[in-house]
Specification:
Structural class: alpha/beta
Number of strands: 11
Helix content: 40-55%
Radius of gyration: 24 Å
CATH architecture of the largest domain: 3-Layer(aba) Sandwich
Strand content: 5-15%
Number of helices: 21
Distance between the termini: 54 Å
CATH topology of the largest domain: Rossmann fold
Bound molecules: 6-O-phosphono-beta-D-fructofuranose
Number of domains: 3
Length: 516
């Protein structure tokens, strides 16, 4: 048995779950007249209503005990002190520095001079692009910006560029290419002109196969149209921690924007990885994004655990994943412009906490991160909400409800109400049991500041869960094996791949046959 499942706090929660399992949310609301107010919390632009959860004051106290027992406060202090809490890679975890306003941070190993310089460079470059002063080889200003990257070098800027489209006032269009399928790039190039297209190659390592493959295709497209590799150079910038590789690819050193080993890919949207966002909305608004995240950092650092938004979201997630056996968690943003948010959160949550050995390499005997999934409402209502309301799985949901999305916002509230209360009916098919837990996160509008708060909220939620599950949330060794096998398959032009299973070799043979 792990230390966690042997612990007093864990056992107390197990015992309490047995008492709570048969209690309906309707009853909890009837018993506690002030429940909506008592189980709501505001932080900056965000209002979190967590009253539609199967919890009482006693439940929350036990969950907070669990957080205390895991040392959440001490670990939080260690992260903000710049300690190497990413032990398996021996790295600090300092994405919070990217939005810090402190002169020096952290106390040991100040990174702020690097951060400030990177932001100045980002500002100068994004303003030059937006102002039409960054010219292509033929002397024309850029009209199209294409970010080539994948995972953390794609999902954040892609999601934010969409989320903040109302605030995008650049004359350029900003597009994103990630997939190893060349069709992804081809679709974007079909709308672009080589002499007015700027490619940003975003890759922390500058070794990611998909990104380098697409970057090479982009370069070939430019060289074909512009006549030479030197001409193509004018059309590239890079965001990377590996400047050597980027310059070897043919990107001018002064066009390489930095990343550092203390920023994980999925935590990097606050860095130069946000360059396409800064181009789309302007650096002043990008600074607003950072300010929103900073406000959430401050809240996370200072609010007591039982009134701390990321801590509460983390604990509620643990309540269902570990004590009710919930295997999935749905994220339902009620805004079309937030349609990429579930994908962003999938990487943030599942790449961080999708682990089955703990920080010491011991197998865990408890569930870790649930499957995170979702889609924008109201579309989702006409696709899978049937299952949320009447299916056999318990799926806790996060409803994100901006106030300025018209009827969509009311629909979010209606869905959460229905999931909570259910409805009696004589015909079993028409009966809704209810008692299905949801959080509602409301905010006035989707602007940069609010998005900064929302994303930092989820980052810290993931951090707290990782601490309680005793995981290193900041490595991702689980992505390596598939990459190795893909490399072996690509390298083997004919015949079967030695050491590979018969099924995969047979499929590979058929693939080649169909291609030839
Ligand atoms: O394969 C997973 C991963 O390493 C992610 O963690 C990362 O965000 C993505 O690949 C892209 O990596 P890079 O920025 O180095 O190209």
């Amino acid at each position: 048995m792990s230390k966690l499942t042997r612990s007093h706090a864990w056992k107390a929660l197990q015992a309490h779950q047995a008492e709570m399992a048969g209690v309906h949310l309707r009853e909890l609301f009837a018993r506690q007249p002030g429940r909506a107010r008592e189980f709501s919390l505001e932080a900056g632009a965000l209002l979190l209503d967590y009253s539609k959860h199967r919890v009482t004051d006693a439940t929350l106290a036990l969950l907070v005990d669990l957080a205390r027992q895991a040392g959440v406060e001490a670990w939080r202090a260690r992260m903000f002190a710049g300690e190497h809490i990413n032990a398996s890679e021996d790295r600090a975890v300092l994405h919070v520095a990217l939005r810090s306003a402190l002169d020096a941070f952290p106390a040991r190993g100040d990174v702020m001079p690097l951060v400030r310089k990177a932001k100045e460079d980002m500002r100068a470059f994004s303003e030059a692009v937006r102002g039409g002063r960054l010219l292509g080889n033929g002397g024309k200003p850029m009209r199209t910006v294409v970010n080539i990257g994948i995972g953390g070098s794609d999902l954040g800027p892609r999601m934010l560029t969409q989320a903040l489209w109302r605030h995008a006032d650049a004359p350029q269009s900003v597009a994103f290419v990630a997939n190893a399928d060349p069709g992804d790039l081809a679709r974007v190039l079909a709308q672009a002109q080589p002499e007015t297209t700027l490619f940003i190659i975003a890759s922390k390592t500058f070794t990611t196969v998909e990104t380098l493959g697409n970057a090479r295709l982009a370069k070939a497209w430019l060289v074909r149209a512009l006549g030479s590799e030197t001409a193509a150079t004018w059309h590239f910038a890079a965001v990377t921690a590996n400047t050597e590789a980027a310059t070897a690819f043919g990107i001018a050193r002064e066009r390489c924007f930095p990343l550092w080993d203390w920023v994980g890919g999925r935590y990097s949207v606050w860095s130069s990885v946000g360059l396409p966002v800064a181009i789309a909305i302007g650096m002043d608004r990008f600074e607003q994004l950072l300010a929103g995240a900073r406000a959430m950092d401050e809240h996370f650092l200072t609010a007591p655990l039982d009134a701390n938004m990321p801590v509460l979201l983390a604990l509620l997630g643990i309540w269902y994943a570990n004590f009710f056996g919930a295997e999935t968690h749905a994220v339902l943003p009620y805004a079309e412009s937030l349609r990429e948010l579930p994908a962003y959160l999938q990487q943030l949550e599942m790449e961080s906490n999708g682990k089955s050995v703990d920080r010491d390499g011991q197998p865990v005997d408890y569930a870790t991160v649930p499957v995170v999934w979702g889609a924008p409402g109201t579309n989702s209502q006409h696709a899978f909400h049937q299952m949320l309301h009447q299916g056999t799985h318990l799926v806790p949901c996060d409803f994100l409800a901006p106030a300025d999305t018209g009827a969509a916002a009311e629909n979010a509230l209606a869905q959460a109400a229905a999931l909570m209360a259910g409805r009696e009916a004589t015909l079993p098919q028409r009966r809704f049991d209810g008692n299905r837990p949801t959080s509602t996160l409301m905010f006035k509008t989707i602007d940069a500041y609010t998005m900064g708060q929302v994303l930092a909220l989820y980052e810290h939620k993931v951090f707290v869960q990782g601490i309680i599950w005793n995981l290193n949330s900041f490595d991702q060794w689980g992505v390596e094996l598939g990459k190795d096998i893909a490399r072996a398959l690509a390298a083997q032009a004919a015949g079967s791949v030695p050491g590979l299973d018969a099924s995969t070799n047979a499929l590979l043979a058929r693939l080649r046959e169909w291609r030839s």
